[in-house]
Design goal:
By secondary structure, the protein is an alpha/beta fold. The protein has eleven helices and ten strands. It has one domain: Alpha-Beta Barrel (TIM Barrel), CATH 3.20.20. The longest helix has 23 residues. The chain is globular, with a radius of gyration of 20 Å.
Length: about 375
């Protein structure tokens, strides 16, 4: 069993009583908003998740400002993280909770100014009360995700929104640089939800965006890149492996959300055209290939975030178990990638013996499942 340090982060928003809508909003009554706050979730992770993980795994925590963490609870949260031997892995402005008309891209000047201010306050909190809860090596990622910046009207106004967004992010990056320039800044592409049309929907569009900020505003691309959200690529039917190659080629893989929409394991349903289901990591050939690509590129030493939701029918204990299974499933895929017969695989591909190449990947899949069974407890 490899003892190389592995960083995994758990999201505050995984822990809730139920999503509601077309599913119950009270399946996990112990986790309703009156009984569960950000600090109590850290305690749950400390008591019920950490003891069931291998010793080489270090845990981090992901939060939205200002709905999940803010000036009122940040000190207590930082103290709880330190007590739990955890660190802040990611913070993101929860603009989707406040702005319905484009956020940092909004054509409404008042909303635009308010959305920009939310981002600056998020930086302030990260460098302020939360600084003591940073990891000494893997500092937090500041993620920008596009749940608020989208549109539903076809017009020439979209170009203005795109320009607003560039100016907003450039301002944010310059502000963060003045604070110390230590955070990793990541765009999380998303093809849909919460608008019919989204800005920065793909990895490629986010990479172009960073290049434009460097060209037009002088924003260095050092520590800038992508929050690799597996499920969002699946939702639009694009290729996770090719995304990974682009991210590595641009030195832009700075954070990951290793979830799944249920595509490509032949068991869980979901995938292109479906809503954001947010299952945990699946043991499949694609994840083994991605882990292998990252190893070939020199390894990935930053956070692997588990941006996931309980099933609509899960109770509290089942939900906790899903998180543990997700973490261990990634470790299993990475183990299989590490032990893959790479030279034979590449030789088979060179000789067009693709059926034999498939056999190697299928064997790796079996190895991954056996490793999961060994470390799951």
């Amino acid at each position: 069993m490899s003892q190389q340090k592995s960083l995994h982060s758990i999201c505050k928003w995984t822990f809730h009583a139920g999503k509601g809508g077309f599913t119950p909003n009270d399946m996990r009554k112990q986790w309703d908003s009156e009984n569960l706050d950000t600090v109590k979730i850290v305690q749950i992770i400390k008591d019920k998740i950490a003891p069931r993980l291998p010793d080489n795994i270090e845990l981090g925590y992901e939060v939205h400002y200002d709905t999940e963490i803010n000036e009122a609870n940040a000190q207590a949260c930082a103290d709880a993280l330190i007590d739990a031997n955890m660190t802040l892995a990611m913070i993101t402005p929860g603009a989707h909770s406040h702005f319905a008309y484009g956020g940092i891209a909004s054509p409404d000047k008042n909303e635009l100014a308010a959305a920009r201010e939310l981002g600056l306050k998020t930086v302030d909190l990260a460098y302020g009360m939360l600084k003591k809860a940073w990891h000494k090596e893997a500092v937090p990622t500041f993620v920008l995700w596009n749940g608020s910046y989208g549109y539903d009207i076809a017009s020439i106004g979209v170009q203005k929104m795109y320009q607003n967004m560039k100016e907003s992010v450039a301002q944010l990056c310059k502000y963060e640089e003045e604070k110390g320039g230590e955070l990793f800044m990541a765009i999380e592409p998303k093809p849909n939800e919460g608008h019919p049309a989204m800005m920065l929907p793909t990895v490629a569009s986010a990479l172009v965006f960073w290049h434009k900020l460097e060209e037009e505003f002088g924003i260095s691309r050092n520590k800038k890149g992508i929050n690799k959200e597996f499920g969002h690529t699946e939702m639009i039917g694009l290729d996770l492996i090719y995304d990974t190659i682009e991210e590595i080629d641009n030195n832009a893989l700075v954070h990951m959300h290793v979830n799944s929409q249920g595509l490509n394991d032949g068991i869980i349903l979901g995938g292109p055209g479906k809503y954001d289901i947010d299952h945990g990591v699946r043991i499949n050939g694609i994840n083994i290939a991605i882990a292998g690509l990252m190893r070939r590129a020199g390894g990935y030493s930053r956070w692997k975030g588990h941006d996931m939701q309980p099933r609509a029918y899960d109770n509290e204990e089942q939900s906790i178990d899903r998180v543990i299974r997700s973490i261990l499933s990634w470790e299993a895929c990475d183990y299989a990638a590490q032990n893959l017969d790479e030279s034979s695989l590449l030789k088979y591909l060179e000789n067009r013996e693709t059926a034999r190449a498939e056999d190697i990947m299928r064997g790796a899949l079996v190895d991954a499942q056996k490793y999961f069974d060994k470390i799951y407890k």
